[in-house]
Amino acid sequence: MSKPAPTLYVTLKWPVYHASLCERGPPAVWLDLSSKPWHAASSSKQGGQA
């Protein structure tokens, strides 16, 4: 069995889409500055995460 084709979403009404985004307001992003920054353990090997 083959996989079904992925759904493709195309915005045809850009003025309506833009107006709806403007009504939502600015996106809210919350950052917790009290948490510790994450650092990977050092390795003597070069390259990606393997």
What does the model show?
The protein is built from one helix and no strands. 0% of the residues are buried. It is 22% helix and 0% strand. With 50 residues, it is mostly helical. The longest helix has 11 residues, at 14-24. It has one helix spanning 14-24. The chain is flat and about 55 Å long.
Q: Please give the radius of gyration in angstroms.
A: 22 Å
Largest sheet: none
Order of helices and strands: H
- The shape is flat
Helix content: 10-25%
Number of helices: 1
Mean pLDDT: 81
Give the structural class: mainly alpha
First-to-last CA distance: 33 Å
- Uncertain stretches of 5 or more adjacent residues: none
What share of residues are in beta strands?
under 5%
| Extended strand count | 0
Defining key terms:
mainly alpha; flat
Brief write-up:
With 50 residues, this protein is mostly helical. 22% of the residues lie in helices and 0% in strands.
Topology of this structure?
Layout (H helix, E strand, L loop, with lengths): L13 H11 L26
